[in-house]
Amino acid sequence: MSQGQSMKVTCQVVEGDGPIRIHWRYQGRPISAAARVSVVSLGEDAVILGISAVQAEHAGEYACVAQNLAGQHHHASMLAVDGPIMPFSFGEESINAGDFVSTQCSIIKGDSPISIAWYFNSSEIESTDQITVSKIGKKGSALTIDATRAVHMGEYTCVAKNAAGSTNFTTYLHINVLPQIVPFSFGDEIPNAGELASLQCSVIKGDSPITLGWLFNGTEIESTDDTTISKIGRKISSLSIESVHASHVGEYTCVAKNAAGATNYSAFLQVNVLPQIIPFTFGDEIPNVGELASLQCSVIKGDSPISISWLFNGTELESSDEIVISKISRKVSALTIESVHASHIGEYTCLAKNAAGATNYSALLHVNVLPQIAPFTFGDESLNAGELVTATCSITKGDSPISISWFFNTSEIESGDGDVVISKISKKVSALTIESARANHMGEYTCVAKNAAGASNFSTSLHVNG
């Protein structure tokens, strides 16, 4: 197109759900009405771009971009204007960070010698490891970027000079920049089971639109009853776990995606899990006095280090001559009573502690205690023949049921044998009565008490004056 001519082009959308936004870009940058340039909207579906008097500086790539909720689409066309520099651009396709790009500046008019230089945002460019400027014959120059980054985005200008003066042409390089996520963590303190844990994923760089998602150990997750994912604006997503447990331990990854690709950042959640103790008992059989009793406390879950201690009826225990506490391993402790007695009856508790807190488990020790007989006699005074004689056998200790029997000189006495009467006063008291003592009643009388733990006895002698 020759300089001075007018130009109009209409961009019309033929398909797509509303609302639709249409705008024009020149050399990759948004344009609006300016001197000799007009942008006129024809309803929602069409926009006209017009230039009343085309000049050399109008040459370049014009793109119409249509956008709705589903995404965007564009179409580009090059406007060539008769002039000393052939219009150039970095191409119609979107350029992502890391892509290779190049463009060429060709001088089609002008007397030699001609010098060609490149400028980036008004600063002259020289070849570096990242950007290469190459001479192509006497009237051409190429600019190449091996791997684009966000810092390369901007205006690139080719300036051609000869004895008559200088001319230039500018194009804009737009790069789809990958999202950049602000590093995050669950904090310096490891949460305990039951506490809250949260993360916030914030994208500080990257072209919109950006989608954010979360992974747990590599698997995509969404909001559940115990994990809440919330969108805060277009570039922030938060993840909250109201009450953490062992099942929540693992790697949480925020994934941010846009047209340039995807980036991610991960944080590991460690939870201080309370110790879990395997239930234990002293066994099904109740031990008798003098027998051995033992317990083993094993912690199968919980973060180390774990301390294990024992309590007896709520009071902390330490090893003694009677009770031995042994550390089997870091998570196992044993309690042993070599010879149980009535004083050992009670509640034994294993207490396991770690950074998350403390748990405990208890077992009750019951001991079959031998009967204990209160001492008795037939009295301090000697008895005369024909007098009434009585003795009472009382059990002061011992587990029920208890059976009580009487012996005379090692022979068991049955109630009603002759004139000797045995009476059951209660479950733990028995009385022996002789209505009329005689010489043949003299001897040793023994009360024998028996229960599941064994038998005990007490004896006293009867003396009758003849």
From TrEMBL:
Membrane topology: Single-pass membrane protein
Domain Ig-like: 1-82, 84-170, 179-270, 275-366, 371-465
Location of this chain's protein in the cell: Membrane
UniProt keyword annotations, A-Z: Cell adhesion, Disulfide bond, Immunoglobulin domain, Membrane, Repeat, Signal, Transmembrane, Transmembrane helix
Domain of life of the organism encoding this protein: Eukaryota
GO cellular component: axon; neuronal cell body; plasma membrane
InterPro entries: Cell_Adh-Cytoskel_Orgn, Ig-like_dom, Ig-like_dom_sf, Ig-like_fold, Ig_I-set, Ig_sub, Ig_sub2
GO process terms (BP): homophilic cell adhesion via plasma membrane adhesion molecules; synapse organization
UniProt cross-references to Gene3D superfamilies, sorted A to Z: Immunoglobulins
Record-linked Pfam families: I-set (PF07679), Ig_3 (PF13927)
Record-level Gene Ontology MF annotations: axon guidance receptor activity
Chief localization: membrane
The protein, known as: Ig-like domain-containing protein
Organism: Cloeon dipterum
